[in-house]
C-alpha cells in the first residue's frame, strides 16, 4: 500500500551506524549504503534496494495474496510489509505520535489500519506464510535491516 512519509523523515541519515557496522565487511557495508541512498527516500524503495543488494528474489504486491504484501519471497514463504510508523502505530516510536488536532479521527483511522494488519497477517499465516514487518524508522539503519533480512532468509525452506 502507498505510504506517505512525514517530511521530517525525508533525506535524513544519521552519520554513525554504531554496532550495525559489525556484521558486514567494509565493502558490503558501502554497497548497502550506496544501494539504499541511490533510490530516494520512500521506505519501500529503501527496502527494495536492500533486497536487491542482498540478491534476494522477490515480487511486489502480488494480487493473489491477502493484503498484497509489499514484498513476497516465495522461496522462503516470507511476506514482508514495510510499515509507516505513523500509519500503523509503531509502538514506542516517536514517529507514531498522533497529531494534537483531530486526534480522535486519526486514532480511529490508525486503529482500523492495525485491525486490518492483524487480519491480513492471520490470513497469511493460515496459508503457511511467514510475515515480517519492516518499520519505516528502522530503515534509517539499513545495515540492521539487511541483517534481519539475512536472518529471515538464512534457511532454504521453512515448513
Ligand atoms: Zn518507528
- The beta-strand count equals 3
Average predicted local confidence, pLDDT: 84
Instruction: Predict the CATH topology of the domain at 43-140 and 153-159.
Output: Endonuclease, Chain A
**Quaternary status of these chains?**
single chain
CATH superfamily label of the domain at 43-140 and 153-159: VSR Endonuclease
Largest sheet: 3 strands, mixed
| Range of strand content | 5-15%
Question: Major sheet: order of its strands?
Answer: 1-2-3
* Number of helices, counting only DSSP H or I runs of 4 residues or more: 4
> Which regions have little confidence, pLDDT < 50, spanning 5+ residues?
1-19
Q: What is the CATH-assigned architecture of the domain at 43-140 and 153-159? A: 3-Layer(aba) Sandwich
Could you say which structural class the secondary elements and strand pairing correspond to?
alpha+beta
Question: Taking Cα atoms only, what radius of gyration do you get, to the nearest Å?
Answer: 16 Å
Shape: globular
Order of helices and strands: HHEEHEH
State the helicity in percent bands.
Answer: 25-40%
- What is the CATH top level name of the domain at 43-140 and 153-159? Alpha Beta
Distance, first to last CA: 28 Å
Provide the list of bound ligands, each named once. Answer: zinc ion
Give a written overview of the molecule:
With 159 residues, this protein is α+β, with helices and mostly antiparallel strands. It has a domain at 43-140 and 153-159: Endonuclease, Chain A. Helices cover 36% and strands 9% of the residues. It has 4 helices and 3 strands, in the order H-H-E-E-H-E-H. It has a 3-stranded mixed beta sheet, with helices on both faces. Strand 2 (78-83), helix 3 (103-126) and strand 3 form a beta-alpha-beta unit. Helix 1 (26-37) packs antiparallel against helix 2 and helix 2 crosses helix 4. The model is unreliable at 1-19 (pLDDT under 50).
